[in-house]
Design brief:
Layout: H1 25-46, H2 58-65, H3 69-81, E1 85-88, E2 92-95, H4 100-124, H5 127-145, H6 159-166, H7 170-191, H8 196-212, H9 216-254
Antiparallel strand pairs: 1-2
Helix pairs in contact: 1-3, 2-3, 4-6, 4-7, 4-8, 4-9, 5-6, 5-8, 7-9, 8-9
Pfam family, one: FCD
Protein name: GntR family transcriptional regulator
Organism: Shewanella oncorhynchi
Length: 255
């Protein structure tokens, strides 16, 4: 749910940045390179250009992007914290694997936290934030009417992100934005059914109306239902993709 495609910026903090820029020019250069490589690898993982479960070669990535291994290693450490990369002893770093079990765990947690974000936003959202949220929804509805069903952008043009920011709870923001957001985007990008956005935008409209009416209980309930529908859709799509991949592997082995 920019236009900086793969970083995300809030008013108070840039969660995806690795560290604050330090005083020396050498450190600034290093941080900038790390941020740049982070954005590019992050995008490649979320879009599946680096396949789920595939091995990550630090040296190969450094050579690909024309930088030293230091900034590459720094970026990979951040991707580990974002759970897009996993590291195991004697195996090394790999792109996170998409699994039904993790999907369900992730969406259960998301449901609780984003329901809370909605409840808080209903009492704390500013007129400016509400207007921005309504403008975003109107833009998405207009795009949907034209046949554009892609709404997997991030940051300020992500419906869920705006509500999280409007909650005004920094710990909640850090948990969702810093810890879960990018992994959720990976599932949403790779496993969303093409018909889901039509229903999702209608559900977004009802959530916004509840927030505008300052009905936190209703907004929370609607968000939890919305996320559950998204979970079911994503789970079915993931199972379908896994079955297709297994079938292709079987055919390849036969050949």
């Amino acid at each position: 749910m920019l236009k900086q495609d793969t970083t995300f910026v809030s008013d108070d903090t840039q969660v995806s940045h690795l560290h604050k820029v330090k005083s020396t020019s050498a450190d600034k250069t290093s941080t900038t390179l790390a941020d740049q490589i982070l954005v590019q690898i992050q995008t490649s993982i979320i879009k599946g250009e680096l396949p789920a479960g595939s091995k990550i070669n630090e040296q190969a990535l450094a050579e690909k992007y024309g930088i030293s291994r230091g900034p590459t290693r720094e970026a990979l450490q951040t991707l580990e914290r974002q759970r897009l990369v996993v590291r195991a002893p004697h195996v090394g770093a790999r792109v996170a694997q998409l699994t039904v079990s993790e999907l369900n765990d992730l969406y259960q947690l998301r449901s609780v936290l984003e329901g809370m974000a909605c409840e808080l936003a209903a009492s704390r959202i500013t007129p400016e934030q509400l207007a921005k949220l309504e403008d975003l929804l109107a833009t998405q509805e207009a795009a949907l009417a034209k046949g554009d069903t892609y709404f997997q952008e991030e940051g300020d043009v992500d419906f869920h992100y705006q509500i999280i920011q409007a909650s005004g709870n920094k710990h909640l923001q850090e948990t969702l934005v810093g810890g879960l957001y990018h992994l959720l985007r990976m599932y949403r990008y790779q496993c969303t059914n093409k018909n889901r956005p039509v229903k999702a935008i209608a559900e977004h409209r009802r959530i916004v109306e509840a927030i505008a009416q300052r009905d936190g209980e209703l907004a929370s309930l609607l968000m939890r239902r919305h996320i559950e529908q998204g979970r079911k859709n994503t789970e079915l799509r993931l199972i379908e993709l896994q079955a297709n991949a297994a079938a292709k592997e079987t055919l390849a082995n036969i050949s």
